[in-house]
Amino acid sequence: MTTAPLMVTVSGVRGIAHKSLTVELVETFVGTFAAYLQRRDPSKKLRIVLGRDSRISGPEFEKVVVDLLTSLHCDVYNLGICPTPTVQFMVIKLGFEGGLIITSSHNPTEWNGLKFVDSDGLFLSPPRCEEMYALSRTHTKETPVFTRDTDASKFGKVTPYPQAMHDHISAVLSLKYISVEMIRSAKIRVCIDTINGGGSVYVPELLREMGVEIVGSLNTEPTGRFAHEPEPIPQNLKSLCELVAKTECDLGIAVDPDADRLVLVNEKGEPLGEEYTLALCTEMMLSIGGKKGIVCKNRSTTRAIDDIAHKYGCECEASPVGEANVAALMLKTQAVFGGEGNGGVMLPDVHIGRDSLVGLGLVMQLLAHFKLSKAAEDQKAHTAISDLKATLPQYEIVKDKIPLSASVTAEHVDEILAKIKTEWDSKAKTSTIDGLFIETPSWWVHLRKSNTEKIVRVIGEAHTHEEAKMQCEMFHHYFDE
CA dihedral in degrees (312, 171, 97, 67; nearest 10)? Predict the structure, then answer.
């Protein structure tokens, strides 16, 4: 019998609801998280922001979390169904001690999980995350890390906070380089697919407030019943692509179930490529936004970000994959902008976390500026989003994966990567900061164990799709059983 997977990583905890992710495990991790935060100041009453995506198992886990936290004397501000970045933003805005999100991000509907937010609005840093996990492993009935109070009069309070959507959207629209008037003037028309997830209410509301016309909608009820595989990659966005082509709108917009990733479809109904969400936003921030300084990305993100940064006299630095790692590097370097090539946009002016609403605001501003400025020069100018993308450095990225197996375990992967490095050290630049990164002037390949799935990710980039695919496939035989 196959054991249901449970992933405990820097990205949080994820598993199959009520199989590998049980109520008891949720209580252990949530109780330990509260105890971990409390150790900073044992006399202080903890205040926690709570949110969840729309998964069917969400309401039950939400009740478990609320009941536990209040019995531990924590006050809980419950946002209900919302994007993950809204919880991060609200932790900062309210000045609370932490936040929790009940979500399994892009995993299938039967999954659920937990993400842990520190008092700075960031996910627990990798060292702090490991400390918290280590503490959770010591929790037993005999030596509990946390203990429920049975006196209800001492329980923490639960406060619904429905104004979180307004607060988050207002923070995006109040950015000095976002002009709602300009966006309205550009008369942008879009189709959307919010996967019936946590962004199903927030994304349409932000578009309406920017004056963007929604001419086609797919999966915009937060029911948690995903109409297709939830990760916003090309093979899962066929219906959105067809709708964009049918309506002849300016672009399609897709997010994942917890709405921290933003992916675009061009006016022809073709996926723009999730890497180009970050590329467009980088262009926006360094040109119209006028930012100067460090830009951060993860190691598996397109080289286009480096090229755009260098065009504006900025430096680009790369971290290991994972939002927490990018955030840590952004803090260390005092970066002005950053993100990940999976559609994750991170803007310190709002909060340092992947945020589809921030990305959406930046993309609409850049597209509006492009359309209006080009039209002012020539009424017949091509002003589609594909034309805008064509002004950026052009690369093709291939995202491949190799499933782990009984003979190729996670431990065995390290040995294989060491062997590959030995063979390639004399042929290319290599780095072992995060798995194995191999780079030449014309292509790069990144091989690493996934933080969220039992696979080895093989990501490669070159100037053509064929070359990128060929370079990725070149490394498959190392993992043959």
Answer: -130
